[in-house]
């Protein structure tokens, strides 16, 4: 499926701009700067498809990408949460947009909740996980940027993250470790995305 083109469809700055819910969607969620847009690009094998930046708060809308010809699924790149330095009203706007989408989207098959492997799970991540548990949206925890840590650190953060995942009803019991930089874990991530829309 990912051998074909992945094409930008549209940007939704608010819920009433969402595309018609006609195919399954898989959403990329996580704290600002965790690497959501980069991971989507790595998955699609196309640099620059979703816009990335060193500055947190790059993605400010829900961005939809069509996968498959004929159309089989949509990937959704989301604004990050937990970005303390952004203006308060913007943070609030993003939070409502992300939460409302995650809670209320009938075609949302799975969320990927990205966790920076250097930092592990934070309270804001737990809040989002709890919300997904309550909304019965299944999700998978994905460690990002593992090229930035040592093998021993990866073992430790993996153990902690798996332990946390097992406390949440809607979380997949296994986590994925990835690097958009080296491509590590991309085959597993593709398989997880495809499995969720079969
Ligand atoms: P927002 O849209 O602001 O919420 O951020 P985001 O989660 O989409 O993060 P983005 O993909 O823009 O990446 C943030 C920064 O991390 C960029 O400078 C990326 O180049 C870098 N980055 C992302 N993934 C990786 C990775 O796997 N390894 C390394 N070394 N850097 C990464
Ligand atoms: Mg982004």
Describe this protein with a few key phrases:
single chain; 198 residues; alpha/beta; Rossmann fold; seven-stranded mixed beta sheet; 7 strands; binds guanosine-5'-triphosphate; binds magnesium ion
Notes on the structure:
The protein has 198 residues and is of the alpha/beta class. It has one domain (6-196): Rossmann fold (3-Layer(aba) Sandwich), CATH 3.40.50. Helix content is 33%, strand content 21%. The chain is built from five helices and seven strands, in the order ββαββαβαβαβα. It has a seven-stranded mixed sheet with strand order 1-3-4-2-5-6-7, with helices on both faces. A hairpin with a 5-residue loop joins strand 3 (62-67) and strand 4 (73-77). The chain is globular. The termini are close together. The structure holds guanosine-5'-triphosphate and magnesium ion.
- CATH class value: Alpha Beta
Under the CATH scheme, the architecture is 3-Layer(aba) Sandwich
Averaging pLDDT over every residue, what do you get?
Answer: 94
| CATH topology name | Rossmann fold
Beta-strand residue fraction = 15-25%
Bound molecules: guanosine-5'-triphosphate, magnesium ion
Described by the principal axes of the CA atoms, the overall outline is globular
Q: Identify the CATH homologous superfamily.
A: P-loop containing nucleotide triphosphate hydrolases
Tally the beta strands: 7
Element string (H = helix, E = strand): EEHEEHEHEHEH
Major sheet: arrangement of strands: 1-3-4-2-5-6-7
Unreliable stretches: none
N- to C-terminal distance: 12 Å
> In terms of quaternary structure, what is this?
single chain
Derived from helix and strand composition plus strand pairing, the structural class reads: alpha/beta
Tell me the number of helical segments per DSSP (H or I, 4 or more residues long).
Answer: 5
The count of domains is 1
Q: For the CA atoms, what is the radius of gyration?
A: 15 Å
Largest sheet: 7 strands, mixed
Helical content band? 25-40%
């Amino acid at each position: 499926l990912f051998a074909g083109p992945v094409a930008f469809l549209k940007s939704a700055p608010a819920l009433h701009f969402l595309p018609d819910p006609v195919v399954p969607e898989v959403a990329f969620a996580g704290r600002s700067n965790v690497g959501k847009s980069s991971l989507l690009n790595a998955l699609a094998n196309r640099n620059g498809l979703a816009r990335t930046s060193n500055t947190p708060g790059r993605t400010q809308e829900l961005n939809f990408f069509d996968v498959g010809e004929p159309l089989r699924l949509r990937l959704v790149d989301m604004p990050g949460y937990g970005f303390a330095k952004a203006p308060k009203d913007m943070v609030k706007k993003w939070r409502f947009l992300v939460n409302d989408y995650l809670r209320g989207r009938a075609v949302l098959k799975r969320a990927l909740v990205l966790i920076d492997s250097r930092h592990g799970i934070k309270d804001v991540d737990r809040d989002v996980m709890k919300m997904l548990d309550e909304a019965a949206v299944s999700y998978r925890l994905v460690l990002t940027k593992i090229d930035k840590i040592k093998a021993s650190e990866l073992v430790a953060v993996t153990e902690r993250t798996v332990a946390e995942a097992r406390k949440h009803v809607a979380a997949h019991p296994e986590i994925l470790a990835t690097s958009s930089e080296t491509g590590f874990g991309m085959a597993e991530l593709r398989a997880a995305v495809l499995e969720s829309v079969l």
